[in-house]
Design a protein that fits this description.
By secondary structure, the chain is mainly α. Helices cover 68% and strands 0% of the residues. The protein has a single domain, classed as Rna Polymerase Sigma Factor, Chain: A, CATH 1.10.1740. It has helices at 20-35, 39-61, 64-80, 91-123, 135-141.
Length: 142
Amino acid sequence: MSLPKTHFASEPLPETGSDDVSTNAVERAWADRIRAGHMDAFEALYRRYWERLYAFAFRYLRSQQDAEDAVQEVFFRIWRGRADWVPAGAVRNYLYLAVRNAALDRLQRAAVARRQSSSSARRSPAPPEPAGKSIGSVIARR
């Protein structure tokens, strides 16, 4: 049994689908190095997937800013929790699932905010009358 070829973070990964076993091994090595605090491995993973994940998030969110934010949020969470980051299964699958969940969370929060905004607009009291125009001010002057 031979071990997979060692790749360094600065080396490009083979194209997805060309050798999934090798790609998974390389990505697992990146995950191990990220867990150990190696920024170069994190940057390599980020560069490898950012554009694809952004396009994926954009399909859900239909907003450039929201899609960028969702992907950034996922990578930020990975880096912040890097010491304990152990993706179950393929790293690629973990990233897509995490971005999907971040996008769905954003959509859900936006829907809740819209509902709260519309319901508070319906319940808001009438604006106060300008000073000097209310019945109370007329009576008080007499």
